[in-house]
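This section describes the prediction task in plain terms. A model, or a person checking by hand, is given the sequence of a single protein chain and must write out its three-dimensional structure as a string of tokens. No templates, partner chains or ligands are provided. The sample shown here is typical of the held-out split.
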Amino acid sequence: MNEATAVFSALRPRLHGIAYRMLGSVAESEDVVQDIWLSWNGVEHQTVENPEAWLVAATTRRAIDRLRAAKARREDYVGIWLPEPILTDEGASPEELQELASDVSVAFLLLLERLSPEARAAFILREVLDADYPEIADTLGKSEAACRQLVHRAKDQLRDGRPRQTIPHDSHLGLMRRFADAMMRGDFQTLRSLLAVDADLQGDGGGKVTTFPRPMVGGQRIAQLFFAAHLRYGDGVQVRLARINGEWSLLRYLDGALESAQTYVTDGEKILSIHVQRNPDKLARIARGLQGFQAA
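The expected answer:
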């Protein structure tokens, strides 16, 4: 392996992380990183003073272009679009898991959809990757003042949707275990008691499986939805805990087949929001990665 290849290989996870935070799609992120790899191979490497800065900037710019095209496609998406969930490496450290849960959670990626592509890039570079403003300005081809303004406005747009406090890991995990158990037992009262009165649920079926075209609001209604699945499938409802995008989440199986990946926003005591990924295309990678899966 030559030096240029070694540099790219070492930075590949970081580049993929940037692209995934920008696009919310593993496949598109991999395409971006592959494009950058091809571009990197065509560069006179001895002329690149800072390979990491070059690769980060190139990846960010390519992801901005991809996101502009993706936003246009998502306007015609059938139903609600949710980011593609990813199984978190079981070998990740507690610090890595905390970082993932705070800036790659499905809820956070969905929140980033409020931003324009350039604002999203500026926010991610500054607030997630801790880049300085000269670097951001060089990446986006804007002045430092303009980049500061982009980040400031992005913070304002996201402020009301970000959690105000960090939820203890054990509190969230315990809540997930109780909810999973209630789902499998068809315990309607417990399901309802664990959901906030104004909890909401969003589902992504991609037009390939049925789901609700708009968010479902109300803990009572959501509890009835999960209870109805138990009435229909009985013991065929199985729920497993898995870390998805850094957070303990639930995988639901119906009659042995993976039906959905469900990520949860909680306050440690009640479930506030549920994101249910049912699109088979977005579940396929999780299904392939479940070999050797260890339940909590």
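For orientation: The mean pLDDT is 90.
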